[in-house]
Amino acid sequence: MSFTRHDYTVAWICALPLELAAAKAMLENEHSRLPQPQTDHNVYTLGSVSGHNVVMASLPSGVYGTISASTVVSHMVSTYPNIRFGLMVGIGGGVPSQHADIRLGDIVISKPTATSSGVIQYDYGKTLHDGRFQRIGSLNKPPPVLLKAIAQLESDNRTGQELINQILSEVRHKSEEMQESFSRPKDDWLFQPTYNHEDGEESCSVCDQTQLVNRPERTVGPYCHYGLIASGDQVLKDAKTRDAIAQDLNILCFEMEAAGIMDELPSLVIRGICDYCDSHKNKQWQEYAAITAAAYTKVLLSVVPTYCYKNKSSESREPIWMVPFRRNPQFVGREEEITRAEGLIMQQDGPNKVAFCGLGGVGKTQIALELAYRMRNRDSECSIFWITCTSYESVEQAYMGITSKLGMTDIKPAEAKEKVKAYLSQERAGKWLLLFDNIDDMEMWSKDNANNLILTDYLPRSEQGHIIFTTRNRKIAVKLVSSHVIPITELDSATSIQMLQNSLVEKSLLNDRDTAIALLERLAFLPLAITQATAYINENSIDITDYIILLEDQEPDVIELLSEDFGDETRYKDAQNPVALTWFISFQQIQRSDQLAANYLFFMACINPRNIPQSLLPQTISTKKRIEAIGLLKAFSFVSEGGDRSLNLHRLVRLATRSWMRKSQQFSLQIMKTADRLSEAFPSSSHTNRKEQGKYINFITNIAGCLHSDGRWKKAEELGIQVLELRKQGRWKEAEELEIQVLELRKQVLGHEHPDTLTSMNNLAHTWKLLGKDQDTLALMEQCVELSYNLLGPDHPRTKSSSTTLSNWKMAAHLPSLAEASRGKRPASK
């Protein structure tokens, strides 16, 4: 009989190779492997157990823990869309107590209580101000069909035990190798919690036998225990810690993977006990513990009813979960924003579309992720789909993934969006939530673009469905959801401190709260910047003060620091994680859609970023274009507007903009343009502007502060600023010397025939005029007129202005001709 990927309904997950070997021993029939997507790197074993078609997978060798388990299961449920539930089967550490006589080789099965799902992520929570650790959140419960099955086995424990021993006997008789591997070891030693293993010894043969706990001998086994299992990302090998956590939470077993799969796939955890979570050595029990857990699982599946699965495309479906990230254990705050979104979604006759909008790096994706998990916990019948919108390709890939989840076959990529829209718009699709993450590119959503693919055309409509968008671009958000935009701002100080607390390895670094606040202020309370900073601090074992010192270094060094990449399992693998790079794609989108907005951004990045009058921006003939350009920068949260309508550029965005200008080799040119605009805004010879000069002096002096680029540009730009200052003060002789240097540098970098070189020549001619160097003035202005005529044409305003100025100066000097005046000395080069 041949099988397809739609025929497998049970996922059997193992962490270790020895656990997978025990699992394979349970197979009644092993099936041939099936083709799988290129993106799925799992290696599967397929077969049947107790009438169920089972797909088995283990974690990558040497890569264990909740994150690895989550990744394996995520791929598994995508490749095998009809999986009903998961079974996490393997070994664990037991917690013997007066209430539970747990021995090596016994089996612990996760069982929910009134307050827990059966698995507790014991290291997921927050540290309170008094030092107490508060666990937060909860994981999904196993599906009802498994809870009913374990209730059946628990009610007849003796029969279950007999069946387990029968299976163990059959496995051992298959071969001598299995007899040797899976036989029960002899010594089951439990030492007092206060007695540690002898250092350097490979076994407990030399440990003090008087420290053994006195327990009655058993004549039968293994026993099955039902209760709570603790899951975390570290191996527990300390009896005192074991007992402290176990007594607090009523734990029977500790393990490392289950917390990673419970929210990916409704699952039951089954652990054979191979040690007591203490320092003593019991490795010889691992194979036996693995086979007892596997045997129990086979017995369990014999109780679980099998179903005949039809093609699901023609009938109602079980809820689908398609989210690419595991829940972020370090997520804090944002209760107001999440509560508002939940209220809009759950509200009767409420909007079916809502958008989270805010600056890149402010945490929109993390909020959407947390909302997705909360919605699934709140409504187990709701299907949740996640669509990444960083490119057309990522959208297409996500839609193809949805069609696969829905059981649709032979669907071409060009058809997927329409098929998904049609299905979700039907009543039989049930309740669903679509999350579109990173919808920042207007071209993908606007009717005005030249591309035929307009994603708004593929949004489903249903009274049972809702759509959440996350975007940096407020204009897109308003177009899609009207007034239902939830703004996401930077964190408050208390939540930021909590984020540091959750992320730092050395919690004692937060003992100095004032220093921590000083760091957060420099990071603008931006979550992405905080995550990057803590990653750097953790990796390099430095304290907070050291990082602050790095942030106060020269600008190129700060940019390099903020460009340091760091791993983050809750962000896309191909995303620009570093703060200095995360906005580059937004810069490109702004430059494509509105060059004036890009020019404004470049201009503001070159001066003091606070309280910038709109009148100071580069001029445009259209008020409408100016309003739209500023609106676009505000839409991306790059700038904010004060009560006096002055503009403020975000501190970290300013750094990133200057970094981007450097990378695109525009920085030096933009500095020159900024200096020219400031000179134009308040010419030093105008008495009417002297009051305004005091207002604008802060912007002038800040140009020099942003000049840390390499080579001659730096010198040219610094000299340009000094020229402005000297002109303002009427120090013309000193201004002349610097203007000559600026002119020579512009000639070297830009060439003789460049508009900016022409500007420097014109400025120097005016300075010479004020110094009374008439012959030099006329000769240089003649060159200006000739160059302007060749570059700009005879009718250009600058050509006409230079020609008029030259004629006026000739008349004032009573010179018969320019040729005669220029036979003297040429313009001095120094």
Structure characterization notes:
The protein has 830 residues and is an alpha/beta fold. Among the domains are: 10-197 and 212-303, Rossmann fold, CATH 3.40.50.1580; 321-488, Rossmann fold (3-Layer(aba) Sandwich); 493-552, no CATH class. Helix content is 45%, strand content 12%. The chain is built from 30 helices and 20 strands. The strands form four sheets. The protein has a six-stranded parallel beta sheet, with helices on both faces. It starts with 9 loop residues before the first strand and ends in a 9-residue tail after the last helix. Mean pLDDT is 80; it is low at 309-316, 684-698, 704-717 and 817-830.
Write the layout of secondary structure elements.
Blueprint: E1 10-14, H1 17-24, E2 29-31, E3 44-49, E4 52-58, H2 66-79, E5 85-94, E6 107-110, E7 119-121, E8 125-127, E9 133-135, H3 144-155, H4 157-172, H5 176-181, E10 224-231, H6 239-249, E11 251-255, E12 267-275, H7 286-303, E13 321-322, H8 335-346, E14 353-358, H9 364-378, E15 383-388, H10 392-405, H11 413-424, E16 432-437, E17 465-471, H12 474-481, E18 485-488, H13 493-503, H14 513-522, H15 527-540, H16 544-551, H17 555-562, H18 579-582, H19 584-593, H20 595-605, H21 623-635, E19 639-641, E20 647-649, H22 651-663, H23 667-681, H24 690-705, H25 712-728, H26 732-750, H27 755-771, H28 774-792, H29 797-813, H30 818-821
Parallel strand pairs: 1-4, 1-5, 5-12, 6-10, 7-10, 10-11, 13-15, 14-17, 14-18, 15-16, 16-17
Antiparallel strand pairs: 2-3, 3-4, 5-11, 6-12, 8-9, 19-20
Helix pairs in contact: 1-7, 4-7, 8-9, 10-11, 13-14, 13-15, 14-16, 19-20, 20-21, 20-22, 23-24, 23-25, 24-25, 25-26, 26-27, 27-28, 28-29
